[in-house]
Amino acid sequence: MPSLYDFTLKSDVVIVEQRGNGLATPNLTCPGSFNLPLDEPLRIEKFSQVYRDYINGCKEFWQEKSRDLSSYNVISMADDINDIRKSLNHDKIMLFGGSFGSHHGLTYAKNYPKHVDRILVDSPEGLTHTVKLPLNVDRILKGLSKMVSRDTILNNKIPSFIKMVKRQIQSLETSPIKVDVKHPETNEWVQIVVGGYDLQLITASLLGRKEYRELPYRYLQMQEGDYSWLAQRAINIRVNQDENLMPVLTDCASGAKADRWLKLKKQSKKAILGDALNSIRFKVCDSLPNLNLSNELSSDFYTEIPIVLIYGSQDARTPPSNTQDIMKHFKNAHTIRVKNGSHDLFKEVWDEIKPVMINYLTAPNPKLFSSPAIIEAPVNFKVHK
Protein backbone atom coordinates (compact mmCIF):
# COMPACT_ATOMS: atom_id res chain seq x y z
CA MET A 1 0.00 0.00 0.00
CA PRO A 2 1.50 3.37 -0.99
CA SER A 3 1.95 6.23 1.47
CA LEU A 4 -1.55 7.66 1.21
CA TYR A 5 -0.86 10.58 3.54
CA ASP A 6 0.98 12.30 0.69
CA PHE A 7 -2.28 12.52 -1.25
CA THR A 8 -4.19 14.33 1.52
CA LEU A 9 -2.62 17.66 0.51
CA LYS A 10 -5.29 18.02 -2.18
CA SER A 11 -8.12 15.72 -1.16
CA ASP A 12 -9.64 13.49 1.44
CA VAL A 13 -8.46 9.90 1.04
CA VAL A 14 -11.09 7.18 1.43
CA ILE A 15 -10.03 3.53 1.39
CA VAL A 16 -12.82 1.22 0.25
CA GLU A 17 -12.71 -2.35 1.56
CA GLN A 18 -14.45 -4.49 -1.03
CA ARG A 19 -17.50 -6.30 0.31
CA GLY A 20 -16.77 -9.77 1.66
CA ASN A 21 -13.01 -9.25 1.87
CA GLY A 22 -10.37 -8.03 4.30
CA LEU A 23 -11.88 -5.96 7.12
CA ALA A 24 -15.40 -6.08 5.65
CA THR A 25 -18.22 -7.56 7.73
CA PRO A 26 -18.96 -10.28 6.99
CA ASN A 27 -15.70 -11.54 5.56
CA LEU A 28 -16.55 -14.51 3.32
CA THR A 29 -13.70 -16.71 4.54
CA CYS A 30 -14.53 -20.36 3.92
CA PRO A 31 -14.60 -22.75 6.88
CA GLY A 32 -11.94 -25.44 7.02
CA SER A 33 -9.37 -26.20 4.35
CA PHE A 34 -8.64 -28.68 1.58
CA ASN A 35 -5.70 -30.97 0.87
CA LEU A 36 -4.37 -32.78 -2.16
CA PRO A 37 -2.47 -36.09 -2.19
CA LEU A 38 1.32 -36.03 -2.04
CA ASP A 39 1.92 -39.48 -3.53
CA GLU A 40 0.97 -38.52 -7.09
CA PRO A 41 1.70 -35.55 -9.35
CA LEU A 42 -0.81 -32.73 -9.36
CA ARG A 43 -3.45 -33.20 -12.05
CA ILE A 44 -5.92 -30.50 -12.99
CA GLU A 45 -8.85 -32.95 -12.92
CA LYS A 46 -8.19 -33.98 -9.30
CA PHE A 47 -7.34 -30.43 -8.26
CA SER A 48 -10.57 -29.12 -9.82
CA GLN A 49 -12.77 -31.71 -8.12
CA VAL A 50 -11.29 -31.20 -4.66
CA TYR A 51 -11.51 -27.42 -5.05
CA ARG A 52 -15.07 -27.65 -6.34
CA ASP A 53 -16.19 -29.72 -3.34
CA TYR A 54 -14.54 -27.23 -0.98
CA ILE A 55 -16.10 -24.16 -2.64
CA ASN A 56 -19.54 -25.80 -2.74
CA GLY A 57 -19.27 -26.44 0.98
CA CYS A 58 -18.30 -22.81 1.48
CA LYS A 59 -21.25 -21.66 -0.63
CA GLU A 60 -23.65 -23.70 1.48
CA PHE A 61 -22.06 -22.38 4.69
CA TRP A 62 -22.76 -18.77 3.73
CA GLN A 63 -26.17 -19.47 2.22
CA GLU A 64 -27.21 -20.99 5.54
CA LYS A 65 -26.27 -17.64 7.07
CA SER A 66 -28.68 -15.96 4.61
CA ARG A 67 -26.01 -14.23 2.54
CA ASP A 68 -27.11 -13.24 -0.98
CA LEU A 69 -24.03 -14.48 -2.79
CA SER A 70 -25.16 -13.09 -6.14
CA SER A 71 -24.53 -9.58 -4.77
CA TYR A 72 -20.78 -10.16 -4.62
CA ASN A 73 -19.74 -8.78 -8.00
CA VAL A 74 -17.84 -5.81 -9.36
CA ILE A 75 -20.95 -3.86 -10.42
CA SER A 76 -22.44 -4.06 -6.92
CA MET A 77 -19.03 -3.02 -5.58
CA ALA A 78 -19.02 -0.01 -7.92
CA ASP A 79 -22.42 0.88 -6.49
CA ASP A 80 -20.83 0.70 -3.03
CA ILE A 81 -18.33 3.37 -4.08
CA ASN A 82 -21.16 5.58 -5.27
CA ASP A 83 -23.04 5.15 -2.01
CA ILE A 84 -19.91 6.24 -0.14
CA ARG A 85 -19.52 9.24 -2.46
CA LYS A 86 -23.09 10.32 -1.81
CA SER A 87 -22.81 9.83 1.94
CA LEU A 88 -19.73 12.08 1.98
CA ASN A 89 -21.53 14.64 -0.19
CA HIS A 90 -18.84 14.73 -2.90
CA ASP A 91 -19.83 15.50 -6.47
CA LYS A 92 -16.61 14.14 -7.99
CA ILE A 93 -14.01 11.66 -6.82
CA MET A 94 -10.59 10.49 -7.98
CA LEU A 95 -10.11 6.75 -8.36
CA PHE A 96 -6.93 4.85 -7.57
CA GLY A 97 -6.62 1.06 -7.69
CA GLY A 98 -4.40 -1.76 -8.83
CA SER A 99 -5.10 -5.22 -10.28
CA PHE A 100 -8.67 -6.11 -9.22
CA GLY A 101 -8.86 -2.62 -7.74
CA SER A 102 -8.41 -1.22 -11.25
CA HIS A 103 -11.19 -3.53 -12.51
CA HIS A 104 -13.34 -2.16 -9.69
CA GLY A 105 -12.47 1.47 -10.41
CA LEU A 106 -12.94 1.19 -14.17
CA THR A 107 -16.37 -0.33 -13.61
CA TYR A 108 -17.29 2.68 -11.50
CA ALA A 109 -15.97 5.05 -14.17
CA LYS A 110 -18.06 3.34 -16.82
CA ASN A 111 -21.26 3.38 -14.76
CA TYR A 112 -20.84 6.77 -13.06
CA PRO A 113 -18.62 8.85 -15.39
CA LYS A 114 -19.97 12.27 -14.39
CA HIS A 115 -18.74 11.71 -10.83
CA VAL A 116 -15.11 10.88 -11.75
CA ASP A 117 -12.48 13.62 -11.81
CA ARG A 118 -9.51 11.42 -12.80
CA ILE A 119 -8.26 7.83 -12.58
CA LEU A 120 -4.92 6.29 -11.64
CA VAL A 121 -4.40 2.55 -12.02
CA ASP A 122 -1.44 0.24 -11.75
CA SER A 123 -1.23 -3.33 -13.05
CA PRO A 124 -4.44 -2.65 -14.98
CA GLU A 125 -7.18 -5.24 -15.28
CA GLY A 126 -9.80 -3.96 -17.70
CA LEU A 127 -13.47 -4.80 -17.77
CA THR A 128 -12.91 -7.85 -20.00
CA HIS A 129 -9.57 -9.11 -18.65
CA THR A 130 -10.63 -11.23 -15.67
CA VAL A 131 -10.01 -14.46 -17.59
CA LYS A 132 -6.33 -14.59 -18.54
CA LEU A 133 -5.28 -15.65 -22.06
CA PRO A 134 -2.53 -18.32 -22.17
CA LEU A 135 -0.60 -16.82 -25.07
CA ASN A 136 -0.28 -13.54 -23.17
CA VAL A 137 1.46 -15.54 -20.45
CA ASP A 138 3.70 -17.17 -23.05
CA ARG A 139 4.69 -13.72 -24.34
CA ILE A 140 5.91 -12.78 -20.88
CA LEU A 141 7.82 -16.07 -20.68
CA LYS A 142 9.44 -15.35 -24.05
CA GLY A 143 10.31 -11.86 -22.82
CA LEU A 144 12.05 -13.42 -19.83
CA SER A 145 13.95 -15.74 -22.17
CA LYS A 146 15.25 -12.70 -24.08
CA MET A 147 16.31 -11.07 -20.81
CA VAL A 148 18.24 -14.22 -19.87
CA SER A 149 20.00 -14.23 -23.24
CA ARG A 150 21.26 -10.70 -22.51
CA ASP A 151 22.50 -11.51 -19.00
CA THR A 152 26.27 -11.95 -18.98
CA ILE A 153 26.21 -14.63 -16.27
CA LEU A 154 23.15 -16.67 -17.20
CA ASN A 155 23.54 -16.66 -20.98
CA ASN A 156 26.63 -18.86 -20.74
CA LYS A 157 24.66 -21.49 -18.84
CA ILE A 158 21.28 -21.17 -20.55
CA PRO A 159 21.44 -20.98 -24.38
CA SER A 160 17.63 -20.73 -24.55
CA PHE A 161 15.51 -20.37 -21.43
CA ILE A 162 12.28 -20.98 -23.35
CA LYS A 163 13.60 -24.34 -24.59
CA MET A 164 14.77 -25.20 -21.09
CA VAL A 165 11.24 -24.59 -19.74
CA LYS A 166 9.69 -26.78 -22.43
CA ARG A 167 12.15 -29.61 -21.74
CA GLN A 168 11.61 -29.57 -17.99
CA ILE A 169 7.83 -29.56 -18.27
CA GLN A 170 7.87 -32.39 -20.79
CA SER A 171 10.35 -34.39 -18.70
CA LEU A 172 8.24 -34.12 -15.54
CA GLU A 173 5.03 -34.80 -17.43
CA THR A 174 6.50 -37.99 -18.87
CA SER A 175 8.39 -39.05 -15.74
CA PRO A 176 7.19 -37.48 -12.47
CA ILE A 177 9.78 -37.59 -9.70
CA LYS A 178 9.78 -38.14 -5.94
CA VAL A 179 11.39 -35.45 -3.79
CA ASP A 180 11.98 -35.24 -0.05
CA VAL A 181 10.59 -32.04 1.42
CA LYS A 182 9.67 -30.63 4.82
CA HIS A 183 5.95 -30.70 5.54
CA PRO A 184 4.76 -27.10 6.16
CA GLU A 185 2.51 -28.15 9.06
CA THR A 186 4.57 -30.77 10.89
CA ASN A 187 8.09 -29.73 9.81
CA GLU A 188 8.76 -33.45 9.27
CA TRP A 189 10.47 -34.76 6.14
CA VAL A 190 7.97 -36.30 3.74
CA GLN A 191 8.02 -37.37 0.11
CA ILE A 192 6.10 -35.61 -2.63
CA VAL A 193 5.63 -36.58 -6.28
CA VAL A 194 5.84 -33.65 -8.70
CA GLY A 195 4.97 -33.59 -12.39
CA GLY A 196 4.57 -31.30 -15.37
CA TYR A 197 1.44 -29.52 -14.18
CA ASP A 198 3.10 -28.70 -10.86
CA LEU A 199 5.86 -26.94 -12.76
CA GLN A 200 3.48 -25.16 -15.14
CA LEU A 201 1.37 -23.88 -12.25
CA ILE A 202 4.31 -22.62 -10.19
CA THR A 203 6.12 -21.07 -13.16
CA ALA A 204 2.96 -19.23 -14.25
CA SER A 205 2.32 -17.90 -10.75
CA LEU A 206 5.87 -16.53 -10.43
CA LEU A 207 5.77 -14.93 -13.87
CA GLY A 208 3.26 -12.49 -12.41
CA ARG A 209 5.41 -11.55 -9.41
CA LYS A 210 8.79 -9.96 -8.74
CA GLU A 211 10.12 -13.48 -8.03
CA TYR A 212 10.19 -14.15 -11.78
CA ARG A 213 13.84 -13.11 -11.49
CA GLU A 214 14.70 -16.37 -9.74
CA LEU A 215 13.12 -18.68 -12.32
CA PRO A 216 16.20 -19.14 -14.59
CA TYR A 217 18.32 -20.15 -11.59
CA ARG A 218 15.64 -22.55 -10.34
CA TYR A 219 15.46 -24.20 -13.75
CA LEU A 220 19.24 -24.56 -13.72
CA GLN A 221 18.95 -26.31 -10.35
CA MET A 222 16.37 -28.72 -11.75
CA GLN A 223 18.51 -29.38 -14.80
CA GLU A 224 21.26 -30.44 -12.39
CA GLY A 225 18.86 -32.75 -10.52
CA ASP A 226 17.90 -30.51 -7.57
CA TYR A 227 14.10 -30.26 -7.39
CA SER A 228 13.89 -29.08 -3.77
CA TRP A 229 12.60 -25.64 -4.77
CA LEU A 230 9.80 -27.12 -6.88
CA ALA A 231 8.90 -29.61 -4.15
CA GLN A 232 8.60 -26.89 -1.50
CA ARG A 233 6.40 -24.76 -3.72
CA ALA A 234 4.31 -27.78 -4.69
CA ILE A 235 3.63 -28.96 -1.14
CA ASN A 236 2.52 -25.46 -0.16
CA ILE A 237 -0.17 -25.73 -2.85
CA ARG A 238 -1.35 -29.14 -1.69
CA VAL A 239 -1.46 -28.85 2.10
CA ASN A 240 -4.06 -27.06 4.23
CA GLN A 241 -5.32 -24.66 1.56
CA ASP A 242 -8.12 -22.23 2.36
CA GLU A 243 -10.04 -19.64 0.38
CA ASN A 244 -12.22 -16.57 0.63
CA LEU A 245 -15.42 -16.93 -1.38
CA MET A 246 -15.53 -13.25 -2.39
CA PRO A 247 -12.82 -13.30 -5.12
CA VAL A 248 -14.25 -16.53 -6.50
CA LEU A 249 -17.73 -15.00 -6.78
CA THR A 250 -16.49 -11.75 -8.29
CA ASP A 251 -14.20 -13.42 -10.82
CA CYS A 252 -16.94 -15.81 -11.87
CA ALA A 253 -19.43 -12.96 -12.24
CA SER A 254 -17.07 -10.85 -14.37
CA GLY A 255 -15.99 -13.93 -16.32
CA ALA A 256 -15.75 -13.62 -20.09
CA LYS A 257 -17.90 -13.70 -23.18
CA ALA A 258 -18.10 -16.85 -25.31
CA ASP A 259 -15.47 -15.67 -27.81
CA ARG A 260 -12.85 -15.16 -25.09
CA TRP A 261 -13.59 -18.59 -23.58
CA LEU A 262 -13.15 -20.11 -27.04
CA LYS A 263 -9.88 -18.24 -27.51
CA LEU A 264 -8.67 -19.50 -24.12
CA LYS A 265 -9.54 -23.09 -25.03
CA LYS A 266 -7.64 -22.89 -28.31
CA GLN A 267 -4.63 -21.10 -26.85
CA SER A 268 -4.26 -23.41 -23.85
CA LYS A 269 -3.67 -26.37 -26.19
CA LYS A 270 -0.54 -24.82 -27.67
CA ALA A 271 0.68 -22.53 -24.88
CA ILE A 272 3.85 -23.65 -23.09
CA LEU A 273 2.24 -23.23 -19.67
CA GLY A 274 -1.24 -24.28 -20.78
CA ASP A 275 -3.98 -22.53 -18.80
CA ALA A 276 -1.94 -22.61 -15.60
CA LEU A 277 -2.34 -18.94 -14.65
CA ASN A 278 -6.13 -19.21 -14.45
CA SER A 279 -5.58 -22.43 -12.51
CA ILE A 280 -8.86 -23.98 -11.32
CA ARG A 281 -10.71 -20.79 -10.30
CA PHE A 282 -13.22 -20.84 -13.16
CA LYS A 283 -13.90 -24.59 -12.90
CA VAL A 284 -16.41 -23.89 -10.09
CA CYS A 285 -18.38 -21.02 -11.61
CA ASP A 286 -21.26 -23.14 -12.87
CA SER A 287 -22.05 -24.26 -9.31
CA LEU A 288 -22.23 -20.74 -7.84
CA PRO A 289 -25.24 -18.37 -7.75
CA ASN A 290 -23.33 -15.57 -9.43
CA LEU A 291 -24.66 -13.20 -12.06
CA ASN A 292 -23.13 -13.34 -15.54
CA LEU A 293 -21.96 -9.78 -16.08
CA SER A 294 -19.65 -10.38 -19.04
CA ASN A 295 -22.00 -8.83 -21.62
CA GLU A 296 -22.64 -5.76 -19.48
CA LEU A 297 -18.96 -5.25 -18.73
CA SER A 298 -17.92 -5.67 -22.36
CA SER A 299 -20.42 -3.18 -23.76
CA ASP A 300 -18.55 -0.31 -25.36
CA PHE A 301 -17.94 3.06 -23.73
CA TYR A 302 -15.76 6.08 -24.44
CA THR A 303 -14.95 8.88 -22.05
CA GLU A 304 -12.89 12.05 -21.64
CA ILE A 305 -12.01 11.21 -18.02
CA PRO A 306 -8.21 11.59 -17.62
CA ILE A 307 -6.48 8.32 -16.77
CA VAL A 308 -2.89 7.28 -16.03
CA LEU A 309 -2.05 3.60 -16.42
CA ILE A 310 1.15 2.19 -14.92
CA TYR A 311 2.08 -1.30 -16.09
CA GLY A 312 4.99 -3.72 -15.98
CA SER A 313 6.52 -5.13 -19.14
CA GLN A 314 7.02 -8.51 -17.39
CA ASP A 315 3.63 -8.83 -15.69
CA ALA A 316 1.88 -12.04 -16.72
CA ARG A 317 -1.17 -11.36 -14.53
CA THR A 318 -2.03 -8.02 -16.11
CA PRO A 319 0.03 -8.01 -19.31
CA PRO A 320 0.83 -4.91 -21.40
CA SER A 321 -1.97 -5.79 -23.83
CA ASN A 322 -4.47 -4.97 -21.05
CA THR A 323 -3.27 -1.38 -21.02
CA GLN A 324 -3.54 -1.10 -24.80
CA ASP A 325 -7.14 -2.39 -24.65
CA ILE A 326 -8.13 0.02 -21.87
CA MET A 327 -6.67 3.04 -23.67
CA LYS A 328 -9.19 2.60 -26.49
CA HIS A 329 -11.95 3.75 -24.14
CA PHE A 330 -10.24 6.94 -22.94
CA LYS A 331 -9.61 10.12 -24.91
CA ASN A 332 -7.16 11.42 -22.29
CA ALA A 333 -5.00 8.38 -21.51
CA HIS A 334 -1.39 8.52 -20.35
CA THR A 335 0.71 5.38 -19.88
CA ILE A 336 3.87 4.66 -17.91
CA ARG A 337 5.68 1.47 -18.84
CA VAL A 338 7.86 -0.05 -16.15
CA LYS A 339 10.54 -1.92 -18.07
CA ASN A 340 11.26 -5.29 -16.38
CA GLY A 341 8.39 -4.58 -13.98
CA SER A 342 6.08 -7.31 -12.68
CA HIS A 343 2.75 -7.26 -10.84
CA ASP A 344 4.64 -5.98 -7.78
CA LEU A 345 5.51 -2.52 -9.07
CA PHE A 346 5.39 -0.79 -5.69
CA LYS A 347 8.01 -3.22 -4.38
CA GLU A 348 10.21 -2.72 -7.44
CA VAL A 349 10.14 1.00 -8.27
CA TRP A 350 8.21 2.73 -5.49
CA ASP A 351 10.71 5.58 -5.14
CA GLU A 352 10.34 6.34 -8.86
CA ILE A 353 6.55 5.90 -9.05
CA LYS A 354 5.57 7.77 -5.89
CA PRO A 355 6.35 11.34 -7.09
CA VAL A 356 4.64 10.65 -10.41
CA MET A 357 1.49 9.51 -8.62
CA ILE A 358 1.49 12.49 -6.27
CA ASN A 359 2.04 14.95 -9.13
CA TYR A 360 -0.85 13.47 -11.09
CA LEU A 361 -3.34 13.21 -8.23
CA THR A 362 -2.59 16.75 -7.03
CA ALA A 363 -2.33 18.41 -10.46
CA PRO A 364 -4.77 21.33 -10.96
CA ASN A 365 -5.46 20.11 -14.49
CA PRO A 366 -4.90 16.35 -14.93
CA LYS A 367 -5.26 16.63 -18.71
CA LEU A 368 -1.99 18.61 -18.80
CA PHE A 369 -0.09 16.05 -16.73
CA SER A 370 3.21 14.79 -18.11
CA SER A 371 5.68 12.20 -16.86
CA PRO A 372 8.37 9.84 -18.14
CA ALA A 373 6.87 7.29 -20.51
CA ILE A 374 9.25 4.61 -19.23
CA ILE A 375 10.63 3.77 -15.80
CA GLU A 376 13.16 0.96 -15.53
CA ALA A 377 13.06 -1.61 -12.74
CA PRO A 378 16.31 -3.40 -11.87
CA VAL A 379 16.61 -6.98 -13.10
CA ASN A 380 18.97 -8.47 -10.50
CA PHE A 381 18.58 -12.10 -11.56
CA LYS A 382 19.21 -14.69 -8.88
CA VAL A 383 22.37 -16.51 -9.98
CA HIS A 384 23.46 -18.47 -6.89
CA LYS A 385 22.23 -19.73 -3.51
TrEMBL record:
<dbReference type="InterPro" id="IPR050266">
    <property type="entry name" value="AB_hydrolase_sf"/>
</dbReference>
<protein>
    <submittedName>
        <fullName>Alpha/beta hydrolase</fullName>
    </submittedName>
</protein>
<dbReference type="GO" id="GO:0016787">
    <property type="term" value="F:hydrolase activity"/>
</dbReference>
<dbReference type="InterPro" id="IPR029058">
    <property type="entry name" value="AB_hydrolase_fold"/>
</dbReference>
<feature type="domain" description="AB hydrolase-1">
    <location>
        <begin position="12"/>
        <end position="153"/>
    </location>
</feature>
<dbReference type="InterPro" id="IPR013595">
    <property type="entry name" value="Pept_S33_TAP-like_C"/>
</dbReference>
<dbReference type="InterPro" id="IPR000073">
    <property type="entry name" value="AB_hydrolase_1"/>
</dbReference>
<keyword id="KW-0378">Hydrolase</keyword>
<dbReference type="Pfam" id="PF08386">
    <property type="entry name" value="Abhydrolase_4"/>
</dbReference>
<dbReference type="Pfam" id="PF00561">
    <property type="entry name" value="Abhydrolase_1"/>
</dbReference>
<dbReference type="GO" id="GO:0016020">
    <property type="term" value="C:membrane"/>
</dbReference>
<feature type="domain" description="Peptidase S33 tripeptidyl aminopeptidase-like C-terminal">
    <location>
        <begin position="283"/>
        <end position="364"/>
    </location>
</feature>
